[in-house]
TrEMBL record:
Keyword Cytoplasm attributed: no
Transmembrane segments: 47-71, 77-98, 110-129, 135-158, 170-194, 200-223, 251-275, 281-301, 313-330, 336-362, 382-401, 407-426
Keywords of this entry: Membrane, Transmembrane, Transmembrane helix
One Gene Ontology cellular component: plasma membrane
Pfam families xrefs: MFS_1 (PF07690)
GO MF term set: transmembrane transporter activity
UniProt name for this protein: MFS transporter
Matching InterPro entries: MFS (IPR011701), MFS_trans_sf (IPR036259), Sugar_transport-like (IPR052528)
Record membrane topology: Multi-pass membrane protein
Subcellular locations according to the entry: Cell membrane
Amino acid sequence: MKSEDKQYTFLGVRSRADFTLDKHRWQEVEQGEGKRKGGALSGQSKLLLTVNGLFAAANALSGTFVNVYLWKASKDFSLIGWFTLIHHLTMAITFWLAGKWVKEHNKMNCLRAGVAIAALFYLLVLWFGARAAHYFVPLGMVLGLSSGFFWLAFNVVYFEVTDPDNRDRFNGWAGLLGSTAGMIAPWISGFLIVRMQAASGYRLIFTLSLVTFLVGVVVSFFLKKRKSMGDYEWMLTWRCLRQKGTCWRTVNVALMAQGFREGVFGFMIALLVFVNTGNEMSLGNFSLITSAVALLSFMIAGKVLKPKYRRTAMLLGACVMVLIILPFFWKVNFFTLLVFGVGAALFYPLYAIPMTSTVFDLIGGDEESAKKREEYIVMRELALNAGRILGTAVFITVISFTKAPGAMNWLLLGIGSSPLVAWFFMRKVHAV
């Protein structure tokens, strides 16, 4: 290696050519982020993880129970489906429109706006109270707006403070923090709801979420303001989808398949636990057990997963995530739901970490895409949300015609098999 190349290796960049793609990271190190050895996380990475952890904790406190709260008021699965669909549709539109803000203006304010609007969501839920189910449309829009702002800014900053050598480590830590929050917060929420009068318990946990989001806003001010470069290209997603011979067409199909499952399983499993037990504490115990398993799984996966193992790991994770749905055909009860939850917690990191890391490595794969990282992240989120919307629409359509347990099981198996589709389209991309 030439002597002029050696000075760049501590950034996790393997050549001077690669360095040109990551000038923004080099500038941040020179400004005081400090050297990173062997894929270690920088101070800004750790601070971003803290903000993400607070966001996850606030959502875990109440997010698990918002759908239960709405279902108890309506006893209608399709209403929950419509609430989720509106959430994802608004989030997709927000991603596309807010891309200009993040690209050309202050991305950190976009991140803070996402956290602040999440606090507003829970303020509105507190205000509407028992009438919240009647306002599922505006509530879904506010939640979508919050998610769009936060995750767009978070993913752009995540790209800027990580590199190919520590991206799996960052994702492992993010999953670990999310699992910790998912383990403790819902159990506390379930305990409070059961021990207090239900209405008072829900008001308390929604208030705690609101306060946690506000703390997240405060912590976000310690993140450095990041430079904006270039003009936002509104139609990059459409241009990539029309372009032949690009791996982004394949990646977009894989991302849609990933979102197809997330859109339904993100709310349905928790609802099934509550419907089959009739008790918020049971849902809290379910989250405690499954998140404890996920915590260990993400910790191990984040340490041992290397780019060369991604394709195999993703296939293993996808296969098991389909197989764990099969016990539902025997009987849907707390035990079979727990089998599903523990299985998903164990193997989801093998599926999710390679998927996320590979896509972000592609964004930094050449100078042109690195310069348009905001547009590519918007494209990623549009594909994910298109899948979520499609999956939720299928769920609403089926549930409108029949609520028979057998039909529900086949619906969950069909939607839950989409990780195999995601792996099929990503299998060659992992090797790029």
